[in-house]
Amino acid sequence: MEKVCPLCNALEAVDERCPYCGQIIIDGGSLNNYLGPYSPYAEIESLPFKSEGYCVHLMYCPECDYDARVALALVSI
Ligand SMILES: [Zn+2]
Ligand SMILES: [Zn+2]
Asked: How much is the average pLDDT of 6-20?
């Protein structure tokens, strides 16, 4: 049994809405893809929810530039 992120593996679509304008927010991808020595997102390493069993995605609103980091529970396939 393997644990995978439902969004990274296209098992699930984003159904979060922007709290400000109600648009469906867009998945900007896993933060793992942003991490690197010169990444502005490197500080995510210290966040408590970057842990085993979660995949953290950057989501953003196409309307108002609201963005959020969402920790998704991995699912077993
Ligand atoms: Zn993911
Ligand atoms: Zn918005």
From this structure: 91
